[in-house]
User: Fold MSTO1 protein from Halcyon senegalensis.
Amino acid sequence: FVTPSLTQVVAAGASVPFPALRGSSLPDALCTYQQDRPWKLLSSCREQKVSCCFAQSVVLRGICKERKQPASPLHACESAEQVLQHYLRSVFPGAFSTSHVLEQPCSTLPPYPQFFSPLLTRRGFLLDKPPQHSSAAVESIPVLAALQSSPVLHTLLYGLYKDLRKLNPRRWASFFAAGVEQDDFQEALEELRTLSQCYVTGSEADESEDEADSD
Assistant:
């Protein structure tokens, strides 16, 4: 069960750089991720095999849609914003999605660390094979970032609740020195547990009930 008014936590994800081959368009890049997401979670949540989220905000910068003959529904979109929005609707059906595409890439000039693969061009696009000569420093990269409200947050929040519940704050005399009362601490724990339930859906609801019974 999901209560949208109570969902207050999001999981962050990013692709640095965004994996796009040199000379490819945004539809070309996204077409290779129809059954997956083109970013990795930055939050300490367990990756889900099935893409699912309630709401999300996605920003892509440094890559635009090139004019080519339509080879897929993504290629038929008129703008990069439409390409990204169409992709999000197909991979995350039913989710509320906002998206933005910025033409300006992220600069990686000094003092930005040069830890990139030699397969990257100066503009941060992937080469299909290693260059014959040493490549120049990467000056900019396309980047995709996402904030998602999704079921993975249940595991994160409930795990935090269980870890905190194991603590005995009375063992640390300074724990309540700031004026926090034991009852306030217990109330905050229950609010954390309640918040975790806002991110449960489908079969996970049954698992969550089993967890509650075992408490």
About this structure: The first strand starts at residue 11 and ends at 15. The radius of gyration is 22 Å.
